[in-house]
Amino acid sequence: MTKKIFLTGASSGIGRHLAGEFAAAGHDLAICARRESLLTELCETLRQRFPKCHIVSFGLDVTNYERVADVMKQAQIELNGLDTVIVNAGIDKAGKIGSGNFNNDRQVVETNVLGAMATIDAAVALFRPLNHGHIVVMASVAAFCGLPGMASYAASKAAIASYAQSARFELQKKGIKVTTLYPGFIDTAINQNIASRPFLVTVEQGSRKIAQLIEREVSESAVPAFPWKIVGWLLRNLPNWLLVRILKAQH
Ligand SMILES: NC(=O)c1ccc[n+]([C@@H]2O[C@H](COP(=O)([O-])OP(=O)(O)OC[C@H]3O[C@@H](n4cnc5c(N)ncnc54)[C@H](OP(=O)(O)O)[C@@H]3O)[C@@H](O)[C@H]2O)c1
Questions:
Q1: Which residues are catalytic?
Q2: Does ligand 1 lie within 6 Å of residue 190's CB atom?
Q3: Which domain holds residue 125?
Q4: Could you read off the pLDDT of 82-130 as tens digits, one per residue?
Q5: Which residues is 5 bridged to in the sheet?
Q6: Residue 220 has pLDDT above 70, yes or no
Q7: What residue's CA is closest to ligand 1, atom 42?
Q8: Contacts of 84 (CB under 8 A, 6+ apart)
Q9: What share of the chain is helix, strand, coil (3-state, %, to 5)?
Q10: How many beta carbons lie within 10 A of that of residue 199, not counting itself?
Q11: Virtual torsion, Cα 185, 188, 193, 198, nearest 10 deg
Q12: How many CA atoms lie within 13 A of 46 on its CB side?
């Protein structure tokens, strides 16, 4: 069945590749990000490759919270409906706590938490009267455990995963599904300056797995499921003294 998909963070990395996966599957797309020139170029490429797909693009900064709902409504009009909203826009600005990085930390929370909440809120408002819809939230394995050197990122992903879980419980009898994904290291700009990236997968591999999980409308999953489901369990359940040793060995 052809779906109409609203996707944030589509100008690069996972979002850009997801757009390609969904266009190849015949879905219509509204793609958003701040770098409009990259979106325009992506739109052109996808329209040429998949002429049957209806693809529109919007310059959108998700920290412009009020505008998120307006753009989503406009996308709904231009695509003649919306079935799926993918909350993918995100940033990381690594830095140690107490080393003058608070402004960076604030931007991470504004984008990954408040921007994502604004997107989910707009989607639910749009889907509720229809008793239909699917919301996908891009968390991270960093949500499983507070990690050294990326405190604000880990905290932001734990927060949005918790918010998505609340949304799933609130909406389960309303015909609206909520998927939370916890990707491990996927090779994109967001982590290319991190020294250690265990179990790294290419952006093509990672995005394909993510697209498959979205099509299956799973409630939640690590990506790829192996080994991150096991690592996630360990991160949540190992005693603190052992975690300290393991994380020290990584840094
Ligand atoms: N790669 C990984 O290993 C990994 C692992 C776990 C989770 N994730 C999550 O996956 C998502 C996509 O990340 P990625 O790996 O594809 O990184 P990326 O290549 O840096 O892509 C991030 C995307 O988010 C957009 N974005 C950032 N700030 C925005 C804002 N204020 N408003 C609108 N769009 C904004 C960027 O577009 P503009 O700059 O053009 O706005 C870009 O398209 C993020 O939420 C990230 O946390 C990634």
A1: 153
A2: yes
A3: 4-250
A4: 999 999 999 999 889 999 999 999 999 999 999 999 999 999 999 999 9
A5: 29, 84
A6: yes
A7: 9
A8: 3, 4, 5, 6, 133, 134, 135, 136, 214
A9: 55, 15, 30
A10: 12
A11: 20
A12: 29
Closest to 87 (Cα-Cα) out of 180, 208, 216: 180
Provide the CATH number for the domain around residue 95.
Answer: 3.40.50.720
Q: How far is the C-alpha of 203 from the C-alpha of 161, rounded, in Å?
A: 22
Give CA–CA dist 60/58, Å, rounded: 6
Tell me the pTM.
Answer: 0.97
- Assign 250 a pLDDT band (cuts: 50, 70, 90): low
The Å distance, Cα 87 to ligand 1 centre, comes to: 10
Residue 189 Cα to ligand 1 midpoint, Å, equals 8
Q: 93 vs 108, 148, 156, 234, 243, CA distance in Å?
A: 7, 13, 12, 25, 23
Is the CB of 62 inside a 6 Å radius of any atom of ligand 1? Answer: yes
> What's the confidence (pLDDT) of residue 251?
58
Range list of H helices, the chain? 13-24, 36-49, 65-79, 102-109, 116-127, 151-171, 203-216, 225-237, 240-250
Please give the distance, rounded to the nearest whole angstrom, from the Cα atom of residue 90 to the centre of ligand 1: 4
Which atom of ligand 1 is found nearest the CA of 185?
Answer: 3
Q: Are 75 and 56 in contact (CB under 8 A)?
A: yes
- What value does the mean pLDDT take over residues 132-155? 96
| Residue 60 and residue 119 in contact, taking contact as beta carbons nearer than 8 Å | no
Number of folded domains that form the chain: 1
